[in-house]
Design goal:
globular, single chain, 16 helices, Nucleotidyltransferase, domain 5, alpha/beta
């Protein structure tokens, strides 16, 4: 790989000035400079520069913030260099994680001689906020256009708002599954420049995984999560202290039988009150005939988030899962390098006992604050004002959604149109 090009601040400023002067989009600026100045920077960079125009316009136009420039770089210089690195990596479609951002920041700080800098998790969150960066789920580009996504989001929110008067918030469960991997599945590693072959050897933890069904009540309180371990198919739900529910499945996946038992655990059969509701995505197991019939029998309404919209409409994806997985990751990584790991005679690590994993999960789930849960619920469409919804604050879809929402018809939405199976989640689903 060749040496990364430094993009002069003066050029970024020229782009921003062109957009402001001509009242055009970053796309138009990209087309202009690609043709007139033969600049081959990726189009996404133009959008990033414009989002950060206030910071970029304050930069010294002749400075490239290069190492060895004759002065000790400030933290703001380091962050600008880091931001450029992130843009470059995403232009090349590379995965950028919070841990990688922190590692890159520490590396830049060492090179620049900033010895007292600590790339803490708190600093990383603030840095991402300052530069309008966020953790994003990978996109299936063949599934939805922007217009289709906006229309589905509007139709869903209309349906949800029409449903709210008929349900009780303390009996409305927002639920989703998420996989928890013990192996770091990223394919990047730090290595020597110019090395032809970069190989990553499995640490032996790749086969270790659980699935967690995590739910919160629309009133803003947490429900007992379900941990699915690998084991003999049974589907029986076991009640643990915590509170915590556990079960086993041969691949630690979710199927219709398991979901039926889980529904009865969260909505006890003896509870005959009205207003029960499930809010979840359109994966196959959720909207299977067996599950729908069981919900109908139990008088539980289903509100189905359309395929492709879960990152913008689902409480777990909006905020809860990131915090939960960050908490779990710290514990799992500490265990992997500790003396508590047991190995086979062939040197392969043994999976921790289910009780150990359940303890990890209890602690991680307990550390997700009540405020984070309430904010995620409100952002998932349960706040009264549309401006509080996540999709209405999204950096890409905000304006388009709000305009479509303002112009949306008040006609009732056919709920059948919401059952659009779009399995875009990062969880494997098995159905019988």
């Amino acid at each position: 790989m060749g040496k990364r090009r430094q993009i002069p601040a003066s050029f970024k400023q020229e782009v921003i000035e062109y957009i402001e002067t001509n009242k055009c989009s970053p796309h138009a600026a990209y087309v202009h400079f690609s043709k007139t100045q033969k600049m081959d920077y990726n189009e996404s960079m133009y959008y990033q520069w414009y989002k950060n125009k206030e910071k970029i316009m304050t930069l010294n136009k002749i400075s490239k913030r290069c190492k060895g420039a004759g002065r000790t770089p400030k933290l703001s210089d380091l962050e600008e260099m880091l931001f450029d690195k992130i843009v470059e990596m995403r232009t090349r479609k590379m995965k950028v994680s919070r841990s990688l951002v922190r590692a890159q920041a520490m590396s830049l700080a060492r090179d620049a001689g900033i010895g007292d800098f600590k790339a803490s998790s708190t600093w990383c969150t603030s840095f991402m906020s300052r530069f309008k960066l966020s953790l994003r789920r990978t996109t299936n580009l063949t599934t939805l256009t922007d217009n289709q996504l906006i229309q589905r989001a509007v139709d869903y929110m209309k349906f949800l708002r029409q449903t709210l008067p008929t349900i009780a918030l303390n009996r409305t469960l927002l639920m989703d599954e998420t996989a928890v991997y013990f192996e770091d599945c990223r394919t990047q590693t730090i290595d020597f420049e110019g090395r032809r072959h970069v190989i990553i050897k499995s640490t032996g933890f790749s086969s270790m995984r659980i699935t967690a069904c995590v739910g919160v009540w629309a009133s803003g309180t947490r429900a007992a999560p379900l941990i699915i371990h690998k084991g003999k198919n049974g589907g029986e739900i076991n009640q643990k202290t915590g509170p915590l529910l556990t079960t086993t499945q041969s691949k630690a996946w979710v199927n219709s039988e398991l979901l039926v038992n889980w529904i009865d655990a969260l909505f006890p059969v003896v509870d005959v009150r009205q207003g029960k509701c499930l809010v979840w995505d359109s994966c196959q197991a959720h909207i299977s005939k067996k599950v729908k019939e069981h919900c109908h029998k139990r008088n539980i309404k289903m509100v189905v988030i359309p395929g492709g919209c879960t990152p913008y409409l689902q409480a777990g994806d909006i905020g809860i899962f990131r915090i939960l997985k960050d908490n779990l990751s710290e514990t799992i990584n500490a265990w992997k390098i500790s003396e508590a790991v047991e190995y086979t005679q062939h040197g392969n690590p043994r999976a921790p006992a289910p009780a150990v994993v359940e303890g990890w999960f209890r602690d991680a789930w307990r550390k997700v604050s009540d405020t984070s849960i309430k904010n995620s619920v409100n952002s998932a469409g349960f706040a009264s004002e549309a401006s509080s919804w996540h999709v209405a604050k999204h950096d890409v879809y905000r304006e388009a959604f709000l305009e479509a929402w303002e112009n949306a018809s008040t006609d009732e939405v056919n709920s059948d149109m919401l059952e659009l199976v779009g399995q875009l989640d990062d969880i494997a689903i098995e159905d019988n």
